[in-house]
Amino acid sequence: MIQWDEGGQIHSAKWHSENGIAPHQKIQVADDTLTADIAYRLACEGTAMLYKGDFQNARQLLQALVRRVDKPSKKSTRSDRVAKEKTKTPLDAFNLHRLAQSQRARILGMVLIPINADHSISLRRAPDVARACLEVYGEKAEPYVISLRELLGVISAHEWRKKGVPVLARDDEEIRIHPHYGVFSPIRGEYIELVLKAPLPIALKQNSIAFDVGVGTGVLSVVLAIREIKKIIATDQDDRAIACAQDNIDRLRLNEQIEIQKTNLFPTAKAALIVCNPPWLPARPSSSLEHAVYDLDSQMLRGFLSKLKDHLLPGGEGWLILSDLAEHLGLRSRGELLSWFDAAGLKVIARLDTKPQHQKVFDKTDALHAARSKEVTSLWRLVTK
Fold first, then answer.
1. Looking at residue 358, what is its pLDDT?
2. What CATH code would you report for 164-384?
3. Which keywords does the record carry (predicted)?
4. How high does pLDDT run on average in the chain?
């Protein structure tokens, strides 16, 4: 619960944060008279602002905070230059970048919006967000408060869920994958192309069964089905990922080929092909969506490799899809990865590489540009020794 003073009376409401942010202790009511400079000062001091004015003005206020956060003062700029001079390694740059992102998220999360129990918003010029909020939060029995930044993310996710993401599936044929909130969207298509191009194991001719470990949106399971593998068992532990994948499988009418199981990594059976696209960076995730990118101590990657041998049919292959960005950031070495292959009783029979083409690769102002510009995404074809 959160509490605030309004007109000399103490009010309270249920607090909700998908990222697990603790309820704010200092809250003041804000309206259209609040200036961006004062709002920025309050946010930096740790005071959250419960907005009771015009909704569109609240959005403009948040945009003004974004400009102030992303354009530091001259004093901050000098400090940044000094810090940059002291930054001697890519790992230092990565840690500073994550710290800056955390501070940015904290400040931008200080504008709060009250939501009614039916997911409606009583503010002037507020959009209809009931369907979007219902998809993420489910039924609510009482009013609640969330950050405006989170709400905008919920609205954006709802739009992506409606229209879907175009994915090249076969011979210039596009399908649409519909990501749900909190499930990583397949907007980076290069890894999908690798799965389309890699030669299928001969073992599939005798046993046409594959596993998709960590199903996410279900995009790789769909690609395997399009490649005419008769049975795909997809696994995940996240309820949102499972619901999202099932939605996409239903839309594409692939239920007879693809089965989803809620389990950690592998089903109990064995397969001729096992595909895994684990989180690429060994660091602690700070939000639900970041679990698709960050994996503390490479737990999923190491777990997949250590048990892969036990789940492969004779002549079967494991396809590990992995970016080498972690290597360029100093988070993991190539030698370390190869040693994990060896310790798991695996050997590499081939590797397919591709260069990412997303916007950050070419953005020289990005804090991690030096590492991103060298990034290569690979599909490692692994077999038992």
1. 67
2. 3.40.50.150
3. Methyltransferase, S-adenosyl-L-methionine, Transferase
4. 93
